[in-house]
Amino acid sequence: MLVGSKIRLFCRVLFTFAALVLISCADAKKDALFRSIAASESGLTFENRLQLRDSLTILDFEYMYNGAGVAIADFDLDGLQDIYFTGNMVSNRLYRNLGGFKFEDITEAANVGSANWSNGVAIVDINQDGYPDIYVCRAGPRGAKDEDMANLLFVNNGMENGKLFFTEEAQKWGLADTSYSVQSVFFDYDGDGDLDMYLLNNALVDFNRNTARPKDKADKVPSVDKLYRNDSGKKTEGKPVFTDVSLESGILIGGYGLGVEVCDINEDGWPDVYVSNDFLTDDLLYINQKDGSFKNEIASYFKHLTFNGMGNDIADIDNDGNMDVVVLDMLPPDNKRWKLTMMGNNYDQFRTRLDYGYQPQYIRNTLQLNNGNGSFSEVGQLAGIDATEWSWSALFADFDQDGLNDLCITNGYRQDITNLDFMVYGDRVLTMGTEEANRKKRIEELNKLPGIKETNYFFKNTGNLSFEDQSEEVGFDSPTYSNGMAYADLDNDGDLDLVINNIDDPAGLYENTISSEMNRYIRFKFKGPQKNKQALGSQVEVFYDDSIQKKYFTPYRGYLSTVEQALHFGVGQLKTLDSVKVIWPDGKMQKLENISTNQELVLAYEDAEETKPNSRVPASGTWFRSVDSIGLDRLHVENDFVDFKVQALLPHMHSRNGPGLAVADSNGDGLEDLYMGGARGQAGVLMLQEKGSFTSYEFEETEHEDMGALFFDVDNDGDQDLYVVSGGSSFPVGDKAYQDRLYENDGSGNFTKRGALPNMPVSGSVAAAADYDKDGDLDLFIGGRVRPGEYPMAPESFLLQNNSVPGKLKFTKDTQSISGVFKDLGMVTSALWTDFNNDNWPDLIVTGEFMAIRFFRNDKGQFSEITEQTGLSHTHGWWNSIVSGDFDNDGDTDYILGNLGLNSKFKASAKEPLCIYASDYDKNGQIDPVMCHYVDGKNYVAHSRNDLIDQINAMRSRFRTFSDYAEATFEESFLKEEIENAHVVKSETFANSYLENLGSGKFRLSELSRPAQIAPMYGMMVGDYNGDRNLDVLAVGNFYGGEVFSGRYDASIGWLFLGDGSGSFGLADVSQSGFFVEGDAKSLVGLNAAGKELVVVGRNNEGLKTFYRPMKNRMYIPKPNDVYALMTFENGDKQKVEIHYGGGYLSSTSRNIAIPEAAVSVKIMDGNGRETEILDTL
């Protein structure tokens, strides 16, 4: 009886729990942004069903599963948006909107069906009679007849006998193209007022489209897009209205297009064309030359691209008034699918593609952020939208009406043909047998493949370059094979609903349930000029609360589809807009003021003003201006050593980390000079300043890879000697080429190498000087960077005591670096002598790869590590650099630290660190650095199976299939004793960060703003660059030495962080700062020349980049033993400025101190504790 009662009680509890779960799920769906409406309710019964058969498979027709499109327009002008679907093996269908999300199939009556393979669909009023017409792109498998692939133009005749009726007239209009078309876009490219047409093509070819060939040959493939000019109104003499003008217009470059969109990218008032190309072919950005022609300028705007370019969209994601670009690819987001589809890194192949002229391309979605000056920074990984499986359509729109454009993405593929087990098995079984037998075997295996049936993605734009995956929350919870997608207000309630074309499932219909009282909207439709009544190419800007939203009017977006012909803005709770500016396609403008929201306005061209807006002219920098022709134009030439050939599992190379820069008055003429280190095979060079220009003098040695360099007076004879760190990874461990060099200055800028250093053939990074033992001379810390071929084992770092006397230079190793706290420091990248506890003894902070921010307190010449006491023991990262400054004006020293940044595939936290377990797993005498990371709470090996086998051949037998490997966690991949015996390094943060000094030996680490995270941060300088008496930070970054899948980190164009005096920073716009630095920027220094401050950037494998700004401040030239300045301002604020030898990343900048006009006291503290007021001496 007791047992039965317990069972009944358990059942009641279980039933109650289940009911609560069901109620919770029901409530969640009820509150979802989108309500999915079944075909049985809506009457929208279209289904793009494919008829799979052995005679026609993906093996024969590679576009078998590319799907079809959807277009939305009010075809019958009844005020409701109707829907047209294209089909591949089924007829296209037209559904009339009856209201209330009820639809009626009127295809046959309207005469708009199609019996053959259709792709994209564009809606255009081809004859400007006010009725939307339909243009359909068609294709077909190999052997298809031209007439079956001819594109179709259904001209809308309006209502006849109460019914909508179309006539097919493509031949009449000159648009019955048979080029294997994918999609079309209509726009006025030549400024004559009528609508022309760009046709996106993707023809079948008989060769591997991923095989690299010289670009001059690769661009001349049969698959080339076309441009048709509209010649209506001209004397056509009975000829078709549209004329193919591709050749004379410059549309000449071959490619395999899947996405196309029109936008005025460079804001010169003329429409440009972006094409996303599949396979190896680069995407295209055809910039309108304003003379009827286009020029592909994609490499001038974008630094890297997607590999398999799919659908795209262009919109302003951050409300800065600049148009940003998303292009989709097919990167899986989960560990299993990633390992089932990724072959592995092949650096030689990547390098060959670059040598042939291709741009860098990577398998992931890209989000190109418009910097407003003609450049873009790719931030897809930072934004979190880079991996969405085999994706097709991307649409930006403000679906929740909060004022920010969200992102919808469709995905899925009918058969998983990229499964590597299938691909490798096929390669093996097809080596024998007849062609017929092999085909049969291949098809048998093909038919066993599952589909990639996934839920579509909805990313809510949360601002600050962040998108949050809310797919399930908004109602995207059903797996589909989805392709074309379009949005429209289908029920006239002011928000955007969605329609999606699915393979082998009914089309998706999603009602947007947002309340217009919760978040409001404003919508615009257009009555354009006579030859462009749709007003395609118009722009609308809305202004409110010091904010701007901007949209460009083209309905051809995403993939194969056309959205509603209206512009929709979400505005949150705002009830009134300050103003609205309309720029019509011909440049005329219209302005509206005090506009109420929650309404739809029809904008009329007849209300436009004659005034044309000026084309955007890049603003001249307020603070920095680029300068050349002064002799600072040296080119750093990197060698071609490839680290991955030594250790296949490296996350990045260590042979491409220079150049270092150092500044000093080397010849005693009162002018500051510059040293730039050389790569292996290139000499370092000294650039001497002479009357504002520079003359170069090369050093003799070329066998070293120069890293950090430092000018300082070694022997107290009054001149600046030079220390150069040798580094890189192109020599074996212990090679003599890693020995550092010390050059003695004769006082006139002539340098002689001296044998004053102990033997230390270690690949190093940084040199920093301070009199840490207070014996009157400058000692050194030398950071060890890497053990080549033995990554990530820690190299030696050195604390060098200066025992020099005049006439004899000599350094010896301090025992603390041999057996004390500096032993096995790690892979050091930067070091800073700094008095972080204000006891007037120089302490040391050291940063590095897979290192915590390590603090070493100087106890009168003896060092103790106090990292744990500072609260920073869990700060392991890939730190690159550190600089100091009193950023909160509280009289102590804070720090800025450069890290990898967050725009990367690598993710880490203290709870889920990214680790490398290094050991000689296969006992072949080589260190195998196996990286692991967390995915959905589980720890997995981070490498592809092929890469792991390249490094550890024994893994081939441990994981015989890709599937076996994809399922295994890290702990299941290695034996327990292998893991226990491995050398482990970890990273817990990758964020570029601000380190605040809290006093009492405590520090607080916080991430810099999201724009600061777009790239690795390297060289940094501190100063008051905008004259507000608060310290700012100038920084450069990027890194081109990543492994092939991660690719180049190239999003930085330089940063100017404006401090507010409280420890917070705002990012200056590049048009305001003028500080624009692209490329693989590493070092950053300042020096004085002819009354100006020069800022010089060292870039790997590129030339120096130099800027100047007028010097408005007085300048103090420190004495060799000066350590900091304490400035007091008229309002009582105090600011401490340390005076360093070395800092940032490989950057030994000028030690001169700028004294602001507002300073009322400047006290200089030297290394002996002597304080001197110097303001009256300036």
UniProtKB/TrEMBL annotation:
Protein name: Similar to ASPIC and UnbV protein containing FG-GAP repeats
Positions of the ASPIC/UnbV domain: 535-601
Signal peptide residues on this chain, from the entry's feature table: 1-28
Ranges that cross the membrane: none
InterPro entries (alphabetical): Crtac1 (IPR027039), FG-GAP (IPR013517), Integrin_alpha_N (IPR028994), UnbV_ASPIC (IPR011519)
Taxonomy of the source species: Bacteria, Pseudomonadati, Bacteroidota, Flavobacteriia, Flavobacteriales
PROSITE patterns: PROKAR_LIPOPROTEIN
UniProt KW keywords: Signal
